[in-house]
Write a sequence for this structure.
């Protein structure tokens, strides 16, 4: 009787993991076969506001603002705006000398949402058509805003650029960079290949200025540490498709240590739960049950990849335990589990860009067990009721991805 109950549990687990593994595999294949649309320079230019919220990032914001202000988009059609939360006076003076527009903000509880709310309400909305959000460590590579503009000119109302790693200076940074590219392939390129809306990341994302301002003036969003996901959700509710512009690149600093990785993943896990609740919030008004609704809901019920890997490792351990004890613990048989594990790994191989196939990546893979442990710790540290924004500290690195 006890063994039967164990078999039923593992059968349910197998079906759960199989559904998501097959889903990710299909999307990964679609993304590999899909030819992304080409975007380039359009003779008609929209006016773009580049929004940079920053919190105690004096060591990096000057460089970021300089690069943003010098971007190769017509200077009379874009401007950089920085929300300066707890920056030093000398930093603010240097920013204004670049020059960029600096709005000094101060909150009882600092958050990205509050900074963006202040910026969007500070800027006259009739002066800009598009607002693009970048983080204080992000660098837009040449042509980025031109391609964003072209996508809007061709009818899109929301765009996610291709965020890539600025640094691969540690094994953790390599794994974080690779994880980002897997996400880009599955949740952005693959989704668009199937005619679904891409998922936003949190930076390098552009929206119609008035729409973004309306979202950040919604009641409740200022106290939501998962404000990026709420923007994605509200865009879906409005029936707007988010385009992924694959060759509009934004460099992003990747976490370099396990401690920062753990803190970041704690925030992401909390954000996933908060985001999931939005799909069932009856007080938020009518939510159209579109394909994008069901797809995004399905995405948000999937466990993180490291939890997937941990599950498959535990299954392998149980197989060995059953082999040595002579008791068939697993159900269905090990060959099914082996096939499912192989399909999951194949999904990774399809999604990872070719420039990651190197000895440096192989060395980084040896650190996955430690990151699995960090992910478990992140799960235990989750506080869905948290109101403060868990800031991920960044260390300045050069602009060239390596």
């Amino acid at each position: 009787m006890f063994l039967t109950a164990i078999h039923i549990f593992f059968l349910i687990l197998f079906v759960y993991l199989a559904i998501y593994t097959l889903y990710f595999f299909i999307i990964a294949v679609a993304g590999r076969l899909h030819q992304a649309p080409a975007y380039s320079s359009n003779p008609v230019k929209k006016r773009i506001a580049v929004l940079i919220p920053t919190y105690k990032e004096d060591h990096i914001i000057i460089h970021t603002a300089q690069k943003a202000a010098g971007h190769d988009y017509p200077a009379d059609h874009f401007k950089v705006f920085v929300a300066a939360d707890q920056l030093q006076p000398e930093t603010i003076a240097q920013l204004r000398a670049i020059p960029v527009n600096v709005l000094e903000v101060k909150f009882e509880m600092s958050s990205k949402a509050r900074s963006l709310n202040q910026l969007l309400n500070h800027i006259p909305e009739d002066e800009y058509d598009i607002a693009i959000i970048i983080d204080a460590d992000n660098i837009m590579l040449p042509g980025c805003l031109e391609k964003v503009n072209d996508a809007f000119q061709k009818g899109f109302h929301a765009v996610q650029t291709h965020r890539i790693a600025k640094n691969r200076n540690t094994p953790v940074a390599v794994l974080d960079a690779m994880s980002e590219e897997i996400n880009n392939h599955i949740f952005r390129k693959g989704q668009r290949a199937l005619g679904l809306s891409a998922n936003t990341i949190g930076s390098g994302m552009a929206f119609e200025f008035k729409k973004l301002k309306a979202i950040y003036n919604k009641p409740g969003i200022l106290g939501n540490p998962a404000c990026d996901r709420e923007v994605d959700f509200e865009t879906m509710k409005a029936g707007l498709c988010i385009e992924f512009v694959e060759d509009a690149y934004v460099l992003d600093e990747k976490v370099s240590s396990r401690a920062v990785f753990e803190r970041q993943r704690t925030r992401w896990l909390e954000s996933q739960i908060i985001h999931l609740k939005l799909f069932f919030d009856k007080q938020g008004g009518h939510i159209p049950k579109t394909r994008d609704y069901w797809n995004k809901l399905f995405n948000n019920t999937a466990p993180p990849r490291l939890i997937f890997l941990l599950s498959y490792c535990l299954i392998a351990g149980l197989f060995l335990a059953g082999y040595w004890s002579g008791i068939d613990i697993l159900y269905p048989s090990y060959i099914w589990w082996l096939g499912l594990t192989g399909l999951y790994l194949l999904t990774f191989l399809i999604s990872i860009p070719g420039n990651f196939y190197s000895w440096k990546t192989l060395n980084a893979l040896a650190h996955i067990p430690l990151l699995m442990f960090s992910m478990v710790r992140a799960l235990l540290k989750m506080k869905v009721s948290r109101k403060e924004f868990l800031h991920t500290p960044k260390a300045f690195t050069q602009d060239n991805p390596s």
